[in-house]
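Final report, closing paragraph on structural work. Over the funding period we assembled a curated collection of sequence-structure pairs, and we close with a single example.
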Amino acid sequence: MGGYGSGRQWHLGAKETVDNYRELDIHYLHKKGLLGLHQSFSLSWSRGERSTGSISIVGHKSHLVLTYRHQRTGEDWESIEYSVMIDWTPCHYGGQRPWFKCPADGCNRRVAKLYGGRVFACRQCYKLAYPSQREAYDDRAIRRADMIREKLEWMPGILSLKGGKPTAMHWSTFERLEAEHDALVATACAGMSARLNLIGESMDN
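Its predicted structure, as stored:
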């Protein structure tokens, strides 16, 4: 008999992203001091004002014990409890950093985050993408250009006027960021133009 997730039936389509799943972040738990001996606590998730799930956890230095209920569509609620092992690695400047060992059957990857369906497993097991990986190339260019505008203290929006150099920024840094920004804006505009042309051709047909 296989372990939790035996047979890798948790593999979902590549269209899913991490935003669609409940997340356990071990670095967050470590920062909050929840990985000590017999540390009992609970976590809950919500979307807007609607609760989307909760979990009870008993923390140990070597592992966490997860307890929660899960329901598949059209089936009864199922009570689930299992352990997730923790691996500690040394940091360059002293101390140790914890990592989850993915509990899905046949995996055991060392990861910082687990994502919950029936089993809390790593992003690779669920074949999850980050939202940015689902962006069209021109949408990605717009987002990255806006990030540069924020660094340069310019008004947001690629169609807004450019500003000057921030007071404390070196000219070489400013010129590099401005050139990168302009290239991204050109990419974004080309993409938007191509989309508009496709829409126009579709309406003509």
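Residues 70 and 118 are 6 Å apart (CA to CA). The helical segments are 26-31, 123-126, 137-151, 171-204. We thank the funder for supporting this effort.
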